Amino acid sequence: MDDKNEELKKEMSAILNEKLPMPEVTSLIDEGFKIKNPKRRTAVMIALYKKAVSGDLSAIKELRSIVSGNTPEKDAKAVKIIEDI
Where are the domains of the chain? Predict the structure, then answer.
């Protein structure tokens, strides 16, 4: 990974680890979510969950990969090309 990507990764990680603002916490609690240590990553995961529940296939796949610990590359099956001449 180049330096710019590494820097962006660090910045995004820092943003996601910030405390979630109280109005957002209140909104999520009002929706029925139990939140113990609200960070911005909590809101992102809840948004992903909501998309998955609505039937968004890419969100479902992303949640599955997060929960299982597999990356899409690990989940992908090899393609075997057979010459049919």
Answer: 3-75
Question: Could you tell me the two tokens for 57?
Answer: 């296939």
| 76 pLDDT above the threshold of 80 | no
More confident residue, 75 or 11: 11
Beta bridge partners of 19: 39
pTM for the predicted model, two decimal places: 0.72
Q: What is the DSSP string of the chain?
A: --HHHHHHHHHHHHHHTSBPPHHHHHHHHHTT---SS-BHHHHHHHHHHHHHHTT-HHHHHHHHHHHHT--HHHHPPPP------
Cβ contact 78:53 at 8 Å: no
- Buried/exposed code over 55-73 (b: 16+ C-beta within 10 A; e: otherwise): eeeebeeebeeeeeeeeee
